[in-house]
């Protein structure tokens, strides 16, 4: 959530940056500024009446102590009007603050100055490409056919149990999942991240804190009786560990990682591009999260991008890094890098990670602060990234490593899988 003071003092810049994000309600900015002005005027009036009432109370006390009871009673007779005014101003303030909050939560985060303009994924900026695209044999198969051929994943059985988008992993397919999770967690630990195991259901306050609510209710599974939400990513519970927390400056950066299943309704997803593992409602992911000093957050973003790229390099997967354009960015992000791997059988790029800097957008909602060098509290910056999401990693591993003799497991995973071929 953006800070009101910043919006008021930087109106033109806010409108300019929101336009980069293709925000469709620029009039909200002026609505917020007007509401804030009314709120501040009302607060000033309330403070003025309170000051008069306090001065009168002090005067009454002095008169009573000096035996001037009649004068004291005369002043006391007028205090009822002050009390009524203070009550009315309090009610007006509460209503204005509630309306202001409702407007503020509709504004997305402002994109960083380096974010390119654009509306669609095709307008994202390619930052780099790494690795050669593999040449596959003429009879190469997409991963959903390989999964059936080697009895690794049963999509139809998942449909029977739950519905489309909930696959069942079997045999070496299940072991490959477990191996990747363990590998990603071990690499995160080597990178200085502390592992946490968090709940898979969160309350409304947690969803609001990281920006999923009220923006993405339709994409989240909702347990209505208990008013809890299945997590779309570990980012939500892991970041909310620090909701309403004031950290010491020397505690920064805070670095956490966590493995969770993730649940997304993916409403409206259809077509050939969602076949197999390309788009699921339940999938596994290892997430990395950092809480950092504002001065370091963009260098930390580059470090997190490098960490994710290192995982792809160790797996031997060709990949590219994209800087997302304004129209393709998430609601809460100030700058996002997407990592995509090349699917040799499908002949297209598949997104496997997003790494984002949220600056103070989440921490303002979370009331996540730290004490700076002067001892004053200050909003921290939050960042997170997929390191990594499993489905499309598995898809490209199966497709890119297929041979006439079977599927070769990357060397780095063999200590985890305990096998080097799928045959």
Question: In brief, what are we looking at here?
Answer:
By secondary structure, this protein is of the alpha+beta class. It contains 14 helices and 19 strands.
What do you see in this structure?
- With 423 residues, the protein is α+β, with helices and mostly antiparallel strands.
- The protein has 14 helices and 19 strands.
- It has helices spanning 4-9, 11-20, 27-65, 69-77, 79-104, 143-149, 155-161, 171-190, 204-209, 235-239, 297-314, 361-366, 390-400, 414-417, and strands spanning 125-130, 153-154, 168-169, 194-195, 201-202, 222-223, 228-230, 246-248, 254-263, 282-292, 319-323, 335-343, 348-357, 369-371, 377-379, 381-389, 402-403, 406-408, 421-422.
- The protein has an eight-stranded mixed beta sheet with strand order 1-11-12-13-16-10-9-4. The chain has a three-stranded antiparallel beta sheet with strand order 5-7-6.
- Strand 14 and strand 15 (377-379) form a beta hairpin.
- The model has no long low-confidence stretch (mean pLDDT 94).
Radius of gyration: 27 Å
Sheet with most strands: strand arrangement: 1-11-12-13-16-10-9-4
The best one-word shape is elongated
Helix content: 40-55%
| Annotation field: number of helices | 14
**Biggest pleated-sheet summary:** 8 strands, mixed
Q: What's the pLDDT, averaged over the residues?
A: 94
In whole angstroms, the N-to-C terminal distance is 51 Å
> What are the low-pLDDT stretches, counting only 5+ consecutive residues below 50?
none
